Structure to design on (524 residues):
């Protein structure tokens, strides 16, 4: 049954996963583009610190990619069930928990593809540059962080998508709406509530989202491929 | 009934206490030895776990301490008025001591500098720190030389980057630098006053002075004032921190590294473990959802 689940999940996810697979391999390499060979430009000797500048530019892309991989894998795990009204799952003589755990396992197995591509890209990027004194490459640690972040988002959306697509849509809309309009909404409310400090509330909320033990803490840590 | 039960339980307890040790001592000596050996193994394990936990706690404390190793604001206020001229000149002005850059950020900015001295300072090379901060000269106000910071190739790159797209590009000395590299480029950087202009150096100097004052704690200002107006930069910093400048520079560099979140450290492992725990919880929630929600 696990093999069939793998097949079904693969059919649902393959086209969505392909660009992410390429991105996972290419992004670490893009973060060192034009730095390894030295080149003939007069500023070629400055690549040591340019490396860190490039790393800082590309750093936000890595957690976003992890979130995208996790989301695509989780939503594709349940897409067939929602399309067919769960007929396929209900016709099987299998408990719900076993069915869900098989689905979770197949998604986690497919996760190894982009994570492996990311590891290969990070290793190649590291090998392609000569690091100056003071800098160390962390391809392994960064890959583990990428895996943990992907797994978190995958788990979150897998749990939501196991209910209904409507649940996912509502939670996503509330989350994005809070991020985009939350600050303005708080400012508006603060006008009518005496003593309310909208900025302090925003800071407290942001801190609770990004601080340990929030599930999103993994996205706010050190995502540098090269660091001191 | 209750009255009769309580004395019985009490008697049983007393009997157990009396016979327990007797039973233990009546066992074969080999068994006792084995028990002792097992106990010793357990003790060793507990000690190892405690040591591991202690080292993690100490690492976290070191990071926190590095963040808090700064001079108190109460000291900076009066210090602005009493800052010796040599020191204020070295900092680029009296108010410069208030340019506070968090140690973790300062470390990254030092690494980003094209100067090899700045970068080597971040890995704890004291001589590099002295060169980067301009602590090496015997002048009263200290001073740094672009020759200590850049080798000719890097100097050319710095000139190329700074002059590109500006009116400086057409100047003859800049063009000579771009053609020949080497000494002409260092002369251009000298003309630009580059050792003064590099903002990270001034921020690093302010950080070092604040660190010296924090380490020297009570009486730091008084010790500097007691040296009089002819004191050199080295003497002032040594007096403030109560240690040689070389040691001070090494400790300051280490404090910057301690404040930077490390890859693969206990915090990183905790974050990964937490992420795994959350993923497991989400998976569990998905598995325990008993409704199939058909047609929605």
């Amino acid at each position: 049954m696990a093999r069939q689940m793998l097949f079904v999940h693969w059919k649902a996810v393959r086209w969505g996963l392909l660009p992410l697979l390429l991105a996972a391999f290419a992004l670490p390499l893009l973060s060192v583009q034009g730095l390894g060979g030295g080149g003939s430009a007069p500023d070629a000797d400055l690549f040591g610190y340019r490396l860190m500048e490039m790393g800082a530019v590309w750093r936000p892309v890595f957690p976003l990619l992890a979130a995208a991989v996790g989301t695509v894998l989780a939503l594709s795990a349940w897409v067939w069930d929602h399309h067919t009204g769960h007929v396929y799952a209900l016709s099987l003589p299998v408990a719900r928990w076993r069915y869900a755990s098989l689905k979770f396992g197949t998604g986690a197995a497919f996760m190894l593809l982009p994570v492996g591509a990311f590891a290969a890209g990070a290793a190649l990027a590291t090998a392609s540059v000569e690091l100056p004194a003071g800098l160390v490459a962390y391809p392994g640690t960064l890959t583990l962080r990428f895996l943990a972040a992907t797994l978190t988002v995958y788990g979150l959306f897998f749990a939501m998508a196991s209910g209904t697509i409507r649940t996912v849509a509502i939670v996503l809309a509330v989350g994005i709406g809070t991020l985009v309009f939350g600050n303005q909404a708080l400012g508006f409310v603060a006008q009518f509530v005496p003593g309310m400090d909208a900025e302090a509330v925003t800071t407290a909320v942001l801190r609770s989202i990004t601080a340990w033990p929030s599930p999103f803490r993994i996205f706010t840590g050190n995502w540098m491929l090269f660091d001191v | 009934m209750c009255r009769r039960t309580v004395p019985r339980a009490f008697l049983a307890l007393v009997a157990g206490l009396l016979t327990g040790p007797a039973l233990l001592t009546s066992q074969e000596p080999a068994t006792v030895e084995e028990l002792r050996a097992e106990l010793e193994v357990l003790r060793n394990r507990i000690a190892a776990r405690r040591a591991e936990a202690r080292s993690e706690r100490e690492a976290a404390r070191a990071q926190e301490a590095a963040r808090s190793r700064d001079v108190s604001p109460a000291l900076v206020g009066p210090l602005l008025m009493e800052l010796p001229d040599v020191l204020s000149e070295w900092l680029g002005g009296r108010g410069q001591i208030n340019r506070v850059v968090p140690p973790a950020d300062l470390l990254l900015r030092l690494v980003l500098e094209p100067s090899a001295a700045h970068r080597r300072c971040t890995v704890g090379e004291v001589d590099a720190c002295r060169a980067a901060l301009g602590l090496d000269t015997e002048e009263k106000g200290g001073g740094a030389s672009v020759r200590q910071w850049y080798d000719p190739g890097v100097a050319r790159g710095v000139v190329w980057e700074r002059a590109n797209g500006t009116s400086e590009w057409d100047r003859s000395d800049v063009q000579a630098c771009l053609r020949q590299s080497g000494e002409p480029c260092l002369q251009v950087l000298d003309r630009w006053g580059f050792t003064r202009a590099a903002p990270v150096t001034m921020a690093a100097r302010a950080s070092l002075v604040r660190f010296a004052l924090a380490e020297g704690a009570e009486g730091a200002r008084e010790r500097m004032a007691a040296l009089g107006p002819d004191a050199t930069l080295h003497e002032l910093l040594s007096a403030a921190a109560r240690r040689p400048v070389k040691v001070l520079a090494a400790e300051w560099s280490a404090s910057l590294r301690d404040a930077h979140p490390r890859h693969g450290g206990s915090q990183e492992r905790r974050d990964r473990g937490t992420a795994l725990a959350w993923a497991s919880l989400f998976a569990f929630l998905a598995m325990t959802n008993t409704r199939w929600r058909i047609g929605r």
In short: The beta strands of chain A are 136-137, 226-227. The CA atoms of residues 21 and 203 of chain A lie 35 Å apart. The mean pLDDT of chain A is 84.
